[in-house]
Design goal:
Structural class: alpha+beta
Number of helices: 10
Helix content: 40-55%
Distance between the termini: 21 Å
Order of helices and strands: EHHEEHHHEEEHHEHHH
Shape: globular
Radius of gyration: 20 Å
Number of strands: 7
């Protein structure tokens, strides 16, 4: 199956951070044999979404919230990242309507259905429910600010054969650095995982540097900006401080061959760029930016390829 060309930023909260009865439900779920394992979960999500959208009329937002989640285990603690498919579908459809003309949107979703979906979403909002999903999605590229919370040694690369970052296991567990993934079968994946404390510290340290050198604007998607980092900081700040943060290249690995994945040092390049910025070393900063743009601009350009 060809997965969506999307990357994901996920937060896994310790199961103890959830109120009862949710805590008990997720604890039981973590040991359930029915739940999708880590290396199959994206495929399961994609198949379900495809079935909803190919119906007539399409099911833009599922009637009930998903009961599935990504699960990590570290030492004796279970960490859970709920899929929250219903909330994420609402948020995605709201962005879709805002970014496209009414006539274009109507070609995909009949206006009466569209209005009903948004009416349901407004009711959800008025009920005071959380609008902060545990998963952010980016299609066709990885926003530069997503590289900031991580360090080079938190990377785990799996190319489908025993080697760098590969370990055969029943589930996502511990790898080099204490947070990396393991899978039940070889899977082609590039993932970074860090603690919430480290993620917040790195974003907080980068903010004044970026604000002074690049400003607050968010116009150019290929530039890091204080505005984007502030948005990221607010999102991270809404979760338990003991949580884990994961950057998953997701379906984007399908657009990069093994050589490109091995050579991908985007996180390290961002770290060096920020260091150069802080020290006033303009040439170093520009060189790192050029390397990042040379890698990701061609990938994003594929979105408009015929």
């Amino acid at each position: 199956m060809v997965l969506p060309y999307a990357a994901y930023l996920r937060v896994y909260e310790p199961v103890t951070a959830f109120p009862e009865p949710t805590r008990t439900l997720w604890t039981v779920y973590a040991d359930s044999r029915r739940r999708p394992r880590r290396n199959h979960a994206l495929g399961v999500e994609h198949r379900a979404a495809a079935l909803r959208m190919t119906g007539s009329p399409p099911e833009v937002v599922p009637e009930r919230e998903s009961r599935d989640a990504y699960v990590r285990r570290l030492e004796d603690m279970i960490y859970v990242c709920p899929w929250e498919t219903r909330l994420r579908s609402w948020l995605a459809f709201e962005r879709f309507r805002n970014e496209h003309a009414a006539g274009v949107a109507a070609a995909f979703v009949p206006p009466p259905l569209s209005e009903r979906v948004m009416s349901d979403f407004e009711q959800w909002k008025r009920a005071g429910r959380s609008l902060r999903p545990h998963i952010l999605t980016s299609t066709w590229h990885i926003p530069l600010d997503w590289f900031v919370p991580f360090a080079r040694d938190e990377r785990c690369l799996m190319l489908g054969t025993p080697g760098t970052g590969y370990r055969k296991s029943d589930d996502v567990s511990e790898e080099p650095g204490g947070h990396g993934p393991a899978t039940a079968a070889p899977a082609r994946t590039l993932i970074y995982v860090t603690s919430m404390a480290e993620a917040r510290r790195r974003v907080s340290a980068a903010l004044p540097v970026v604000r002074e050198n690049l400003g607050d604007g968010t116009g150019d998607v290929y530039l890091l900006s204080a505005g984007r980092l502030e948005t990221l900081a607010r999102w991270l700040g809404g979760f338990d401080p003991r949580a884990l943060v994961e950057l998953d290249y997701g379906g984007l690995v399908q657009l990069l061959d093994d050589r490109a994945l091995r050579a991908d040092e985007s996180v390290a390049e961002m770290t060096v760029a920020l260091t150069g910025m802080e020290r006033g070393e303009a040439e170093l900063t520009v060189a790192m930016y050029k390397r990042l743009l040379a890698r990701w601009r061609p990938v994003r350009a594929l979105e408009t390829a015929n």
